[in-house]
């Protein structure tokens, strides 16, 4: 089988799809979370589906109509970027349209995509605008949808300008696109919020080189990519190990788990606004009524000086990965390692942004530790470092990040320049498997070549929706081989 994606995928046709209604939105100014992404590749994510029970021409017509309607709900995705004479970058909602690509890979089967241990190169050919830098939105489409026929399936992939959307906005659009194609009478998600009146909007100017910025990492470095799956049972076992739970702490653990669950629910855009309010009320009640500082102390006892922090499932999994990758890289004990996590600022900023705020509302939170500490300390210690960094990222810290960027406007330096970094993106909370276009949910979610380098990790929910997690791990070949032989890590991986 040929190894080059260009050998595997045959381009059949390309056209432009326009919104079915004229946009009434004015120009949207790019925020301090949008502008740094101008040097990043377009986001590339999509779903692998069984072959629908209708001819390909009918399928393409259905998807084009659905895309046209979805664009009317998301006018910025049919627009273009513009820069004014002062250097401020705007998203102009001018109905210029999105690309729609039909491709054929009829010699490939679903098993060819899902069967190999490592993600095969053919997946890279399932996406348009490959390795396109987001600054190019000045000259070309903000969005491109590619539909690729397989022998027994179809892949629907979206490439979206990263200076225009983050993961929350991306999946809100993708879910809406699927719902429209499925023929729902009423879209379940609220309309996106396009307001530009928060602390993320700045007068600072990002000065860019002639012709626009370039990506900050090499796109030619040999890499291996694998999806590691973790069952719900394995994730809970790992969380239990991280928190060193015993019978004495069972009640506290269940209470804290309830707080964690309700906290996620109140910040999760999958749920409606009323659900969020109820969850938030219950969460606050648990915190104030159930989890008093004593946690709870017996009558007459003094509260403990320090309350043990409950580490979340995802932070436990991240700590496990941090240790395993650091070990696999065989770094000197004095080498400083970095674990970066993308955090959603919508609910962190005060006043809060709308959960459906459209654009980038993320910041990259770094946690630092020497390789010696990561490997000599226990899993709990590593998880506590991550937990502390994320918990500290409140509204004040969000604003501090904004002020820091304003003092020195710059593009986001993606990559792993020192060979000791891990960058965690995406989220297992994103509704990636809610995309039913009319013939069933995706068999799998995959991403393209965009923004991938040694140490880039993306977290996906598992398909079964029961708390399983998939980690898309990109590493150098030698590091990947060592990770796959790491007993501490692999004992939690599903076979």
From TrEMBL:
The keyword Transferase applies. One of its GO terms (molecular function) is transferase activity. Keywords: Transferase. Gene3D superfamilies: Chloramphenicol acetyltransferase-like domain. The keyword Transferase applies. Transmembrane segments: none annotated. InterPro entries: CAT-like_dom_sf, Sec_Metabolite_Acyltrans. This is Transferase. It comes from Trema orientale.
């Amino acid at each position: 089988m040929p190894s080059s994606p260009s050998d595997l995928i045959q381009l059949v046709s390309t056209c432009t799809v326009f919104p079915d209604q004229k946009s009434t939105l004015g120009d949207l100014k790019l925020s301090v979370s949008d502008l740094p992404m101008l040097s990043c590749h377009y986001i590339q994510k999509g779903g692998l589906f069984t072959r629908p029970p209708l001819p390909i021409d009918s399928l393409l017509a259905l998807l084009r109509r659905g895309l046209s309607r979805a664009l009317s709900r998301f006018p910025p995705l049919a627009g273009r970027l513009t820069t004014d004479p002062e250097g401020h970058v705007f998203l102009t909602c001018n109905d210029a349209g999105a690309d729609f690509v039909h491709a054929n890979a009829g010699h490939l089967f679903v098993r060819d995509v899902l069967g190999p241990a490592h993600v095969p190169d053919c997946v890279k050919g399932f996406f348009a605008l490959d390795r396109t830098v987001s600054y190019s939105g000045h000259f070309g489409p903000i969005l491109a949808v590619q539909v690729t026929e397989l022998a027994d399936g179809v892949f629907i992939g979206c490439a979206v300008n990263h200076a225009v959307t983050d993961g929350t906005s991306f999946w809100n659009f993708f879910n809406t696109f699927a719902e429209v194609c499925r023929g729902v009478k009423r879209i379940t998600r609220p309309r996106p919020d396009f307001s530009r009146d928060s602390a993320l909007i700045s007068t600072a100017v990002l000065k860019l080189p002639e012709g626009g910025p370039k990506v900050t990492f090499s796109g030619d470095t040999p890499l291996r990519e694998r999806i590691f799956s973790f069952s719900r049972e394995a994730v809970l076992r790992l969380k239990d190990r991280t928190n060193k739970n015993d019978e004495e702490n069972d009640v506290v653990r269940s209470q804290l788990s309830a707080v964690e669950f309700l906290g996620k629910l109140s910040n999760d855009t999958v749920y409606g606004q009323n659900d969020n309010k109820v969850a938030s009320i219950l969460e606050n009640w648990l915190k104030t009524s159930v989890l008093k500082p004593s946690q709870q102390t017996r009558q007459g006892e003094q509260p403990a000086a320090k309350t043990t922090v409950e580490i979340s499932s995802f932070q436990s999994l991240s700590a496990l990965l941090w240790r395993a990758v650091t070990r696999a890289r065989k770094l000197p004990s004095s080498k400083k390692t970095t674990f970066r996590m993308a955090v959603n600022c919508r609910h962190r900023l005060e006043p809060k942004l709308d959960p459906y705020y459209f654009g980038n509302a993320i910041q990259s939170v770094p946690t630092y530790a020497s390789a010696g500490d990561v490997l000599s300390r226990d899993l709990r210690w590593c998880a506590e470092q991550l937990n502390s960094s994320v918990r500290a990222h409140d509204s004040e810290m969000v604003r501090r990040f904004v002020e820091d960027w304003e003092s020195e406007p710059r593009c986001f330096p993606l990559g792993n320049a020192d060979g000791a970094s891990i960058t965690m993106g995406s989220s297992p909370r994103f509704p990636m498997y809610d995309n039913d276009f009319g013939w069933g949910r995706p068999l799998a979610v995959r991403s393209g070549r965009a923004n991938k380098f040694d140490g880039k990790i993306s977290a996906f929910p598992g398909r079964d929706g029961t708390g399983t997690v998939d980690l898309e791990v990109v590493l150098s070949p030698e590091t990947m081989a060592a990770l796959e032989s790491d007993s501490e890590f692999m004992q939690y991986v599903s076979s």
